[in-house]
Amino acid sequence: MDTPDLLAPRLLALGDAAWTVEFGHHISASLNARVMGLADTIAIWQADDPLLAAVTDVVPTFRSLTVHFNPQKADAEALGQRLLALARGSSTQGREGRHWQLPVCFAPEFAPDLPRLAEAKGMDEAEVVQRLLATEFRVYMIGFLPGFPYMGGLPTELALPRLANPRQRVPAHSLAVAGEMCAVYPWESPGGWNLLGRTPVQLFDLRHAGQPALLAAGDVVRWHAVNMAEYDRLFAQCQSGQLAREAFLQAEATA
Question: What number of H helices and E strands is found in the chain?
Fold first, then answer.
């Protein structure tokens, strides 16, 4: 019998110009690795495979990959079967994305839900912060808002449900958790995640026309704490463009 992470991939039509390859029905690192494995395989073979040459974009999610293509340049059915064959042999190793070290401030005004999470878990706030800082998060997908990263890896002992009554306004740059996921709100918006801090870094910046979103699926994020003065300094530099986003890349990625 197939285990949840070893289900046979399923091909789903998405209109007449896209296929979705579905690998499973839940969220896990191994399932997402299969998604990213297929995305990498398409990128590797696209230049040499006439069927894949019609692909215009790939969009990874937690458990599936949507492949957009030019219907005027592709045999849709043949492309679908090619994708399915590639999916069956896709790697289960996660993509080695960029490694980021991003600042976050845990000042009380930035972290309204930190006391409640700490109380619910029988910890003090400092212990919650230390566990967050010790965790390596992997970006599973970008969605909900432009640049909004859904990141897996939150320790089970810090898992907390979404708010019963979502906030109408979540401040931009808020670091938040829900379930066993971590995220950052790039924009002010409604939201029901638990707010634990704020980063001065812009997660979506149109000055970077080629890739306005800072993070991409497969990237790895670690957080480091800064005080309010450092937050204000970094925020001003990021907003003005004086501090390049590459400054937050780790010099050497670790496995």
Answer: 5, 13
**Cβ atoms 79, 69 nearer than 8 A:** yes
What number of residues does the chain have?
255
Other beta carbons within 10 Å of 5:
15
Per the listing, tokens 């309204």 go with 112
Going by C-alpha positions, the residue among 60, 75, 67, 61 that lies closest to residue 13 is 67
The reply to whether domains 4-88 and 99-248 share a CATH topology is no
DSSP H or E segment with residue 104? strand 99-104
Residue boundaries of the structural domains of the chain: 4-88, 99-248
Report DSSP letters for 144-190, one per residue. SSTT-EEEE---GGG-BPPPSS-EEEEPTTEEEEEBTEEEEESS-EE
Q: Is the pTM of this model over 0.90?
A: no
Q: What is the CATH number of domain 99-248?
A: 2.40.100.10
Residue with the larger pLDDT of the pair 27 and 122: 122
Contact 128, 250 (CB under 8 A): no
Rg for the chain, CA atoms, rounded: 20
Task: Count CA atoms within 13 Å of residue 15 on its CB side.
Answer: 8
CA dihedral for 10, 14, 91, 34, sign (positive or negative): negative
User: What phi and psi, each to the nearest 5 degrees, are found at residue 183?
Assistant: -155, 170
pLDDT digits (tens, 9 = 90+) for 172-229: 999 999 999 999 999 999 999 999 999 999 999 988 888 899 999 889 999 999 999 9
Residue entry with tokens 């080629």: 210
